Amino acid sequence: MRIGISCYSTFGGSGVVATEVGKALAGRGHEVHILSPSLPPRLVGFEDRINFHEVRASPYPLFEDAPYSIALGSKMADVAEKYSLDIIHAHYAIPHAMAALLARMAVPSLKVVTTLHGTDITVVGSDPSYLPMVKMAIRESDGVTAVSEYLRQETIRTFGVNRPIDVIGNFVEPPGLERPECRSWLAPKSAFVLTHISNFRPVKRVMDVLKTFELVRKEVPVRLVMVGDGPDRVEAETFCRERGFASEVRFTGKQLDIGTVLACSDIFLLPSATESFGLAALEAMGHRVPVIASRVGGLPEVIRHGVDGYLEALGDVDAMAEDVLRLVRDEKLRLSMGQAARDRALGTFAEGPIVDQYEALYHRVLGRN
Ligand code: GMT
């Protein structure tokens, strides 16, 4: 097949999933064209059958903002025609799905598959300024997927749509398990490493990470690694200084090499207000790191409470701190939970079977099965 994949080029999970699906499909012999405003961080290396198309919206004095969605639709139509694309796979509804539908009007043989990732439904998609167009895009796409059963139900509830939505989760590849040298920069030998990775948006509740850490550090030697950047970083760094533990918390900013950080970590914290799947948690699990998260959204479909991590009520930092202390104090429990987490990540959410599901969906919308 010839497949166009449209995504954001930020560090967010939708861009990661889109790029990794594209790489896996190219590895299976399909021709893949990735369309994005700039090179997605995971599209490193020169690989066969995978091409990148930069989308640029030209400015003009009349435009308040250059219309990216139109430029994206135009680029999709152009690439679809030149490379005889069978499918455009839009990752994150806004604006990729709408742009793909415009491209399909220009190139009627094109099929559109839309993957809903989370905030395109739960936060931005339900905003009245976008809702009617998101609803139309879900209705008119040839195939729609959601990354969890929670997100599928939330989509039906929010938009009242009555159409099949396939649930296809996020996935990981088996990472190595060696503990890298950099562990010694992050923490003294006797201290445990807690890690959080996100875009530091309010939905991630980074202050809950810090409050949990504050409770734990009073009891045991521990360090915190905060990876990523976003609107709440300044407040978070200020909090650490005011509470007098700034030297115990490392704010790394955005990092490409998440695997190395996770390989240095003992426990992963994800206290989000909502999370359709939680790719960062799954990546931690793949590294044998148990996850402590809030019991929201699709997280219970990924993390089994008491088996490969703990799920607590939203905002319950006392319970999360108790979970951390239990794992820190009981090495056997921590290691066995870490192993269970890895087994689950690489079993239920292995790349091969998940990419099989996308491939089967493409065949279905093309009427080839
Ligand atoms: O977490 C974010 O805000 C980024 C966002 C994105 O679209 O890039 O992540 C969403 O998609 C990921 C990949 O499918 C999911 O693993 C995340 O759970 C989801 N984020 C939220 O639902 C908040």
What does this structure look like?
This is N-acetyl-alpha-D-glucosaminyl L-malate synthase BshA. Residues 11-173 form the Glycosyltransferase subfamily 4-like N-terminal domain. Residues 185-343 form the Glycosyl transferase family domain. Pfam families: Glyco_transf_4, Glycos_transf_1. InterPro entries: Glyco_trans_1, Glyco_trans_4-like_N, Glycosyltransferase_grp1, Thiol_BshA. The chain has 369 residues and is α/β, with parallel strands linked by helices. It folds into two domains: 2-171 and 350-365, 3-Layer(aba) Sandwich (Rossmann fold); 183-348, 3-Layer(aba) Sandwich (Rossmann fold). It is built from 15 helices and 13 strands. It has helices spanning 13-27, 68-82, 93-106, 119-122, 131-140, 149-159, 183-186, 206-217, 233-242, 258-263, 279-286, 299-302, 317-329, 331-348, 351-365; strands at residues 2-6, 31-36, 50-54, 87-91, 111-116, 143-146, 166-167, 192-197, 222-227, 249-253, 267-270, 291-294, 309-312. The chain has a seven-stranded parallel β-sheet, with helices on both faces. Helix 3 crosses helix 5 and helix 11 (279-286) crosses helix 14 (331-348). The longest helix has 18 residues, at 331-348. 50% of the residues are buried. The model has no long low-confidence stretch (mean pLDDT 95). Bound molecules: ligand GMT. Ligand GMT binds at residues 12-14, 17, 92, 117-119, 147, 170, 199, 201, 203, 274-279.
